[in-house]
């Protein structure tokens, strides 16, 4: 144990001598050689690793960017609907290339699955469009990409069904195209538009059928515009309505509707011109043509009513002059233009009284006593009916009917004239009473009698009030759902002189239009 410290002391002494003598450099060199040996050993180990793992490392550093690029191209091709392509630019080819570089990449497998589902969707869309060949190709691609068997079988069943129906659709399409070429556009089951519609009912996205229907509708609307330009309002309106039924959004529909509206407005102006020239028949037919297409046209309604009243007044004047042929023609024209039964009955009664007056003037005079007794009986009946308030009804027992008989018996008798004058305020009072009771139909009958008994006076104000009352009651009844009464109220208001520009008239008219729109919905 005592020799060990002596040995250490000797070593320390040797080192001190080496430092004094300058021999320290070879120790440092010896230690440096140890470091270099370890460095060389590490370098050899790295070299061996590089040699052994050169392929995986190369794949890691060089394939990663390329795989990402292939996946990105596949995503873009899939979004564009380019599922497969012979030149390798389809989604399937890009995903398969990425999978070949990196078989463990899940994005590539997911992309192929998405491509298979997109192929099924394309097959279904092709069937909807009637393209059986495209549907077959898409279904084959989907099966190659191993979509679920259940989904592929469902599309396959649809494909077989379309193949069975293909012959029927082809025949219908051929007939439709032949009808289009012959310009048999509509009007029968064998015309172009109904046949195209049958094809589209089976294949809603059939491209040829859609294009054929588009061409047929363009031709039909061109015919509508031509008919409107020639004044055929009914033909133009019928064609526009049929086209709207096939395709409400057709590009030519607004222009065709504008042409029809312009033709309607032109016919209204033409009717007004004939009305000012007192060409009643032509004016009435013009207004009727407009109302056949646009029943709620207020201007045409008012014009037609004025024409009817003018014809009835002309019939009364001709009958008073004993020109019964002309009176009958005016009466027939008024009936053809829609005169009411009450108006026609009053005119016929006026003509009958005129005929009786003519016979009284031409026949031998009746014994004075017998005529006087008959006249007194009629005047007494008139007074009794007036006392009961039966001014216009019931028929045959009213004061008005008794007066007409008395006028036919003795038109120039002072008592008959006085009785007629007494009925004027009674008829006027009848109008007021019926208006207070809101009995607008009865008020109109009283006003008609008043107009026959006396021309002029405060009848214009009564007509205005009666028209306003019709509007008020029509608005109230429309609120309870009585559309028919509201429509009649609008017509009666126009008949009694309410202008189409009046605020109440336009308000009720708009409400009726809104009801029609809601009913269509």
Describe the sheet with the most strands: none
Q: Count of helical segments?
A: 22
State the end-to-end distance. Answer: 120 Å
Strand content: under 5%
Q: What portion of residues is helical?
A: over 70%
Shape descriptor: elongated
Task: Give a count of the beta strands, DSSP E runs of length 2 or more.
Answer: 0
Q: Radius of gyration over alpha carbons?
A: 51 Å
Average pLDDT across residues? 77
The structure class reads mainly alpha
Low-confidence segments, given as residue ranges, are: 22-27
- State the order of secondary-structure elements, H for helix, E for strand: HHHHHHHHHHHHHHHHHHHHHH
Can you tell me about this structure?
Helix content is 80%, strand content 0%. The chain has 521 residues and is an all-alpha fold. Helix 17 (399-409) runs antiparallel to helix 18 (414-436). The chain is built from 22 helices and no strands. The protein starts with a helix and ends with a helix.
Q: Keywords for this structure?
A:
elongated; single chain; about 525 residues; mainly alpha; about 80% helix; about 0% strand
């Amino acid at each position: 144990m005592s020799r060990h410290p002596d040995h250490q002391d000797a070593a320390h002494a040797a080192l001190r001598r080496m430092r004094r003598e300058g021999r320290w450099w070879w120790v440092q060199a010896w230690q440096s050689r140890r470091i270099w040996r370890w460095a060389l050993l590490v370098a050899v180990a790295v070299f061996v690793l590089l040699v052994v793992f050169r392929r995986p490392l190369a794949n890691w550093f060089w394939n990663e960017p390329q795989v990402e690029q292939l996946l990105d191209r596949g995503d873009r091709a899939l979004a564009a609907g380019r599922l497969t392509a012979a030149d390798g630019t389809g989604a399937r080819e890009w995903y398969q290339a990425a999978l070949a570089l990196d078989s463990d990449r899940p994005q590539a497998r997911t992309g192929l699955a998405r491509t298979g589902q997109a192929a099924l969707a394309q097959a279904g869309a092709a069937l909807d469009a009637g393209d059986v060949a495209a549907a077959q190709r898409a279904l084959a691609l989907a099966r190659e990409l191993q979509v679920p068997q259940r989904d592929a079988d469902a599309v396959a069943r649809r494909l077989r069904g379309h193949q069975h129906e293909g012959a029927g659709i082809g025949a219908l399409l051929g007939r439709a195209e032949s009808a289009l070429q012959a310009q048999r556009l509509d009007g029968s089951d064998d015309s172009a538009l109904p046949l195209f519609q049958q094809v589209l009912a089976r294949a809603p996205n059939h491209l040829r059928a859609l294009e054929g229907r588009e061409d047929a509708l363009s031709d039909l609307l061109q015919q509508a515009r031509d008919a409107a330009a020639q004044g055929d309002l009914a033909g133009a309106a019928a064609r526009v309505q049929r086209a709207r039924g096939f395709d409400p959004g057709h590009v030519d529909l607004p222009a065709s509707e504008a042409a029809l509206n312009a033709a309607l407005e032109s016919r209204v102006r033409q009717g007004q011109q004939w009305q000012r020239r007192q060409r009643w028949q032509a004016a009435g037919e013009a207004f009727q043509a407009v109302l056949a297409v646009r029943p709620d046209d207020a201007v045409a309604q008012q014009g037609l009513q004025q024409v009817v009243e003018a014809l009835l007044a002309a019939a009364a004047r001709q009958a008073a002059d004993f020109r019964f042929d002309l009176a009958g023609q005016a009466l027939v024209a008024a009936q053809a233009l829609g005169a009411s039964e009450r108006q026609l009955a009053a005119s016929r009664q006026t003509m009958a009284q005129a005929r009786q007056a003519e016979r009284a003037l031409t026949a031998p005079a009746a014994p004075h006593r017998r005529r006087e007794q008959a006249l007194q009986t009629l005047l007494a009946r008139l007074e009794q009916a007036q006392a009961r308030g039966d001014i216009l009804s019931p028929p045959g027992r009213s004061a008005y009917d008794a007066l007409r008989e008395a006028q036919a018996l003795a038109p120039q008798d002072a008592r008959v004239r006085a009785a007629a004058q007494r009925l004027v305020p009674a008829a006027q009072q009848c109008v007021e009473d019926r208006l207070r009771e809101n009995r607008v139909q009865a008020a109109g009958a009283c006003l008609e009698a008043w107009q026959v008994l006396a021309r002029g006076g405060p009848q214009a104000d009564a007509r205005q009030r009666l028209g306003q009352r019709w509007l008020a009651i029509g608005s109230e009844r429309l609120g309870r759902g009585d559309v028919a009464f509201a429509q009649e109220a609008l017509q009666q208001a126009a008949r009694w002189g309410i202008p189409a520009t009046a605020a109440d008239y336009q308000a009720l008219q708009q409400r009726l239009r809104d009801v029609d729109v809601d009913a269509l919905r």
